[in-house]
Design brief:
alpha/beta, 27% helix, 271 residues, 6 helices, Nitrilase/N-carbamoyl-D-aminoacid amidohydrolase, six-stranded mixed beta sheet
């Protein structure tokens, strides 16, 4: 299975981001990728609350929905939009991943469960829960003969989610992200490799990279990790670009057979 990850530097212009992502997706499909994934915040990165809520739409009015569905159908691909900020039913935003199938229909959607509420020091703080409602359920889907578990960015720090997805049959784990530069340098690769090793799964991590229009700085370094925990493809920079890899699902069965770490969950005893 040939896959492609789109590394972006999304800005505050939603229509411009849609055009940039479409161009990259079309290029990847022209080079033979049948499963294509984009990063978190594909069609908008905007940290100003007022500007964010002025720009985002409900799913039924978001221009990305029709555009990405039509694109998946026209290119006959499975398209994973890492996430889009959309207006939820309670007036807060949702950070939502979508899987569009080759027929252009939505095959799955996932709302980010773990909110990025952190203080990194030197005045760099984030409070995602101030604007976004958290998701409540894990989600898996299927594409190109593979079972795929969905997640978004900060989720990667919570190993139980990936174990649950793998035990439910997921062979590929999606980790679209907009990692900060400090946490990216310190933790990005080691967390991705850990999730692959623990579950015997492929990990596909499409990333945002560089300095964005709203002032945010993201790490880039999109990666594909195999089920043995090896980095088999990476963009060693934070510039926009495309990353390709070939996946062999037999490697999942092999890794899980060699180290059956998904078996044997235990109860905890003691006070």
């Amino acid at each position: 299975m040939k896959i492609a990850l789109v590394q972006m530097r999304s800005g505050v212009d939603m229509m411009g981001n849609l055009a940039d992502s479409e161009a990259a997706i079309r290029e990847a499909a022209a080079k033979g990728a049948r499963l294509i994934a984009t990063p978190e915040c594909t069609h908008l990165i905007q940290k100003d609350k007022d500007a964010l809520f002025a720009a985002i739409k409900t799913p039924d009015t978001d221009p990305g929905m029709v555009r990405y569905g039509d694109l998946a159908e026209a290119l006959n691909i499975d398209l994973f939009i890492g996430s889009m900020a959309q207006l939820g039913p309670d007036g807060r935003a949702v950070n939502r991943s979508y899987h569009f199938g080759p027929d252009g229909q939505i095959k799955a959607q996932y709302d980010k469960i773990h909110m990025f509420d952190v203080s990194l020091g030197q005045g760099e703080t984030y409070s995602e829960s101030a604007n976004y409602a958290r998701g409540r359920r894990a989600v898996k889907t299927s594409a190109q003969g593979a079972k795929i578990g969905l997640s978004i960015c900060y989720d990667v720090r919570f190993a139980y989610l990936y174990r649950r997805l793998a035990k439910a049959g997921a062979q590929i784990l999606m980790v679209p992200a907009a990692f900060t530069q400090p946490t990216g340098r310190a933790h990005w690769e080691v967390l991705l490799r850990a999730r692959a090793i623990e579950t015997g799964s492929y990990v596909l991590a499409a990333a945002q990279g560089g300095k964005h229009e709203d002032g945010r700085k993201t790490y880039g370094h999109s990666m594909v990790i195999n089920p043995w925990g090896e980095v088999i493809a990476t963009l060693d920079h934070n510039e926009p670009g495309l990353l390709y890899a070939e996946l062999d699902l037999e490697a999942v069965a092999s890794a899980r057979g060699r180290i059956p770490a998904l078996h044997g969950d235990q109860e905890i005893e003691g006070p």
